[in-house]
UniProtKB/TrEMBL annotation, chain B:
PANTHER family referenced in this protein's UniProt entry, alphabetically: 5-OXOPROLINASE RELATED (PTHR11365), HYPOTHETICAL 5-OXOPROLINASE (EUROFUNG)-RELATED (PTHR11365:SF23)
Domain (Hydantoinase A/oxoprolinase): residue spans on this chain: 197-368
Domain Hydantoinase/oxoprolinase N-terminal: 8-177
Stored InterPro entries: ATPase_NBD, Hydant_A_N, Hydantoinase_A, Oxoprolinase-like
Naturally occurring in which organism (per UniProt): Streptomyces carpinensis
Taxon lineage: Bacteria, Bacillati, Actinomycetota, Actinomycetes, Kitasatosporales
Gene3D superfamilies tied to this protein: 3.30.420.40
Protein name as annotated: Hydantoinase/oxoprolinase family protein
Length: 356, 536
């Protein structure tokens, strides 16, 4: 399987859907990935089992503010700089790149870098969706160290962070990103293909592509089609009647209300938002929570809607997709369950299907 | 009746009709006309003015200010025609190479506009630290390479909203090398987001020829009718800019039609907070008025398939107007664009014509009294079905534009205003203000002049007050450049918007200054003369 100019747009759509409304605008990532592929060729998508077990995998992506990255546009050389830094610190060659986060712009930046480096991209990621923090990684659950974390600003400056633990790494790396002007490229949780086969969330790239291709082919009924494809379920179809956002230093919280229309008339869904949609409630009952993926799609054209772009009066379908299995374990829920986002509630599995 | 009182003239050239009005200094309507729009902008404007001057209430000697709203810029981009070729200079190397200039543009538009591009070293980081020293030799080399192949220049530097110095310096170099070509600088056009701001800046530069043609046509038309008036073009926030200024910022005319309609509706209804539906012959624009001015949309906005982030009114467009033909299945019709244009009075059933239109549906339903004869009964059932569909489209647009605000009135304006219902779910009341059918021209005639400025102040809270003052001063300066009377210009709005998701504080500062237009006096003929030279 390859990502090429013919399917990259569908892949980007899949990345946007898996982002649960967060993850940054994949639009600019799509432009970069498409341009890289046009210039440097398609990207081979490779399964961890197809690699030498000792082969080195470099998970990578944007660290910091996606908003700043809209202005401070990438050089495209960040991948080369990260590979050189990782190889310098591990003394072994990087065999494949990996998205540390499949969702949003981070699903696409590694595609650009892989194309420019002529390296394959692993069919896996660290989150299976979007999360705001670095230690919210399947590799963290598996006991793999994030360090050494390599960071570059795209113009030759590199910072190496050797943290005592993954939460320390998160704190130090945020600080470095701020020093780099708000945003930077990072490589973290570097590991062997053997480790990746066990620790990473497998099949993420092909899943995003499959979802995107299926959605692109449809001409109507996108919420239902997405639910069918992912063993998820349509929570409601209706119009956005309320949005509240509170922003402060480094966080954004709020909620939205969707009033059902058509067959959903008379129903009302409340969504709790941070960067992502994290909880869906109806009549005070929790229907589904993070780590399941709550996606919003416009009813008119099936486009995924980010939490920042959600607006009053918008006609949307809200679909719950099963979250990756690793997050539904006790250890996983400690890192990404509703309580880790400040909601006093247990994880509610809103869908019966398994993640696949 | 005072005879020395100044009059202002407003013309709005719509897709179907051209409206023209004269108002007195209190904004009261003195005369109005509506004529069909043709392809000849100058001719339409001239005819509109000439018809107004036939009205005995209009003393040509007292008309000191003429304003025009036209839709030429949008059409030029949509059809990739009449655009100038642009030398695209980006300042930000070694960054930004991941997205070359214009790479995501529709090929036809790109080839019509692109005269060559270069990315040179320079720009700054978020906190103002230089990314690299400005590569002046690189800029000189680029200017030589594009040479006479470029009729305009667009310059975009990384974080120019934090520090525009490199854009200003590069503009100076390009002007020195290329002579008197229009130069657009991104910090004057868009907001944060390099690629979208660059796109907007390139389109702005490409439109400089269209702006010159519009200005020339307007000035010629005004002169032919013998008026001695200062000429202004309407901006998309419902304000004006002088012709000379419009040559620098043609992008600011995009969306000015609906903005004029909203402002005109606000003026004649006396309501400053409302939803406005501007119903023309072929399309309906629905927007929201806040404090008497159009609400701005959240960027990015796609123009002709290009993502941009310049200022635009938040307007939803429905491809249905008073002249829309009612044919076929209702669902298909909603997306259809068939309309009788300005032949409603010969084509529509209610005028004895052969074609069922949405206006006929409104007449058959007893909503409108347009026309000269009854709509034949055999059409009624089908027409009613389409009228219901139209009401649904309008209701959805109104619902989306009100952004959750309850209890706002709906102001209906435009030549097709008759087809709107008299009451509406989700709005307090439906208002059809006096002269609603010429609200766009009225909005142009009563508009003030404005200037905007915007900066980002990052990581330096101690500099914030000084930065706010600088931005306010710049807005005043730009309002005066745009033709505001320096004696009466004032800052009406300063916004300080904290940027999110950052550890270090950063504030986006926006200021708007507004003043009445400088009107024609024998002394001010200097500026008219300058504009004439510019347009020649």
């Amino acid at each position: 399987m390859v990502l090429d100019t013919a399917n990259i747009e569908a892949f980007a759509l899949g990345c946007a859907i898996l982002s649960a409304g967060g993850g940054g605008d994949p639009g600019i990532g799509l432009v970069m990935a498409r341009h890289a592929i046009a210039e440097s060729g398609p990207v081979e998508i490779i399964d961890p089992d197809a690699l030498d077990p000792e082969a080195l995998i470099m998970p990578c992506g944007l660290i910091g503010s996606p908003t700043v990255a809209q202005e401070r546009v990438w050089s495209g050389e960040e991948g080369a700089q990260l590979v050189a830094a990782v190889e310098g610190s591990t003394h072994s060659p990087v065999s494949a790149l990996m998205c540390y986060e499949i969702a949003g712009v981070n699903g696409l930046l590694p595609v650009m870098w892989a194309s420019r480096q002529g390296k394959p991209l692993l069919d896996a990621d660290g989150m299976g969706r979007a999360f705001p923090e670095m230690q919210q990684q399947a590799m963290h659950i598996a006991g793999i160290a994030a360090s050494p974390v390599l960071l570059t600003d795209g113009r030759g400056n590199v910072i190496v962070v050797n943290a005592a633990g993954n939460r320390d790494a998160e704190r130090l790396v945020r600080s470095c990103a701020a020093t780099f002007g708000g945003t930077c490229a990072g490589a973290l949780y570097t590991m062997t293909a053997r480790s990746a086969a066990k620790a990473a969330i497998r099949g993420s790239v092909s899943k995003a592509l499959r979802i995107g291709q299926m959605m692109t082919k449809r001409r109507s009924g996108w919420p239902e089609a997405l639910a069918d494809e992912t063993a998820g379920r349509v929570l409601i179809k209706g119009r956005v009647t309320e949005i509240e956002r509170r922003t402060g230093a480094g966080f954004s919280r709020g909620h939205a209300v969707v009033d059902g229309t058509g067959a959903c008339s008379g129903r009302r869904l409340r969504l709790e938002l941070q960067n992502e949609v994290l909880v869906a409630l109806e009549d005070g009952e929790v229907l589904v929570t993070v780590p399941d993926i709550i996606a919003m799609l416009t009813l008119a054209d099936g486009h995924p809607v980010g939490t920042e772009r959600l607006r009053h009066g918008q006609r949307v379908g809200v679909v719950a997709l099963p979250g990756p299995d690793v997050w539904r374990t006790e250890e996983g829920l400690q890192v990404v369950g509703p309580r880790s986002f400040g909601y006093d509630m247990d994880y509610v599995r809103g869908v019966t299907g398994a993640d696949h | 009746m005072p005879t020395t009182e100044e009059l202002r003239l407003g013309v709005d050239v719509g897709g179907t009709n051209t409206d023209a009005v004269v108002v007195d200094s209190a904004g009261m309507l003195v005369a109005k006309v509506k004529i069909p729009t043709t392809d000849d902008l100058c001719g339409d404007v001239e005819q509109g003015i000439a018809r107004l001057l036939e009205d005995p209430a209009v003393d040509p000697m007292r008309v000191r200010c003429a304003t025009l709203g036209a839709r030429r810029a949008t059409n030029a981009i949509r059809t990739a025609s009449g655009l100038r070729r642009v030398a695209v200079l980006r300042i930000g190397a070694p960054l930004t190479f991941a997205i070359p200039p214009l790479v995501a543009w529709p090929p036809e538009l790109r080839s019509a506009v692109h005269a060559g591009s270069a990315t040179v070293a320079g720009g700054c980081e978020f906190d103002g630290e230089p990314l690299a020293a400005l590569d002046e030799a690189g800029i000189v080399a680029f200017a030589s390479a594009v040479g006479s192949g470029a009729a305009a220049v667009a310059i975009t530097s990384v974080f120019s909203l934090v520090n525009p110095a490199d854009e200003l310096r590069a503009a100076e170099i390009m002007r020195r090398k290329l002579g008197d070509v229009p130069v657009s600088m991104s910090h004057e056009i868009g907001v944060m987001g390099l690629v979208e701001r660059e796109n907007a800046t390139v389109l702005n530069a490409a439109l400089s020829g269209v702006a010159a043609e519009v200005g020339r046509s307007f000035q010629t038309a005004v002169e032919r009718t013998g008026l001695e008036a200062e000429c202004y073009i309407t901006q998309n926030d419902g304000t004006l800019m002088a012709l000379e200024y419009s040559l620098r910022f043609p992008m600011l005319t995009i969306g000015s039609g609906p903005a004029n309609g909203m402002r005109g509706g606000a003026h004649s209804s006396g309501v400053t907070d409302a939803i406005v539906a501007d119903i023309g012959g072929a399309t309906t624009a629905v927007g929201r008025l806040v404090n008497g001015f159009p609400w701005e949309s959240l960027p990015p906005n796609s123009i002709g398939g290009v993502d941009t982030n310049f200022r635009l009114p938040d307007v939803l467009s429905i491809p249905v107007g008073g002249g829309s033909v009612v044919l076929g299945a209702a669902e298909q019709w909603a997306n259809g664009r068939m309309n009788v244009g300005n032949s409603l009075v010969t084509e529509a059933l209610c005028f004895g014509g052969p074609t069922p239109t949405i206006t006929d549906a409104a007449v058959a339903a007893g909503r409108a009294t347009t026309g000269t004869c009854p709509v034949p009964a055999k059409w009624h059932a089908g027409l009613a079905q389409h009228l219901e569909l139209w009401d649904g489209l309008l209701a959805e647009a109104v619902d989306r534009v009100r952004l959750g605000a309850d209890d706002l009135p709906l102001i209906v304006v435009g030549g097709g205003g008759d087809i709107a219902p008299d009451s509406f779910p989700g709005v307090r009341e439906v208002i059809r203000p006096p002269h609603f059918e010429v609200a766009n021209a009225l909005g142009a005639a009563i508009a003030p002049v404005s200037g905007h400025a915007e900066r980002i102040c990052a990581s330096r809270p101690d500099r914030l007050r000084a930065a706010v003052d600088e931005v306010s001063t710049e807005a005043v300066g730009r309002a005066i450049q745009a033709g505001a009377d320096p004696a009466h210009v004032r800052v009406v709005d300063v916004e300080e918007i904290p940027l999110t998701y950052l550890r270090d504080p950063a504030v986006r500062i926006r200021a708007r200054a507004v003043g009445p237009p400088v009107t024609f006096t024998p002394k001010s003929s200097g500026s008219a003369e300058r504009a004439r030279r510019h347009l020649a």
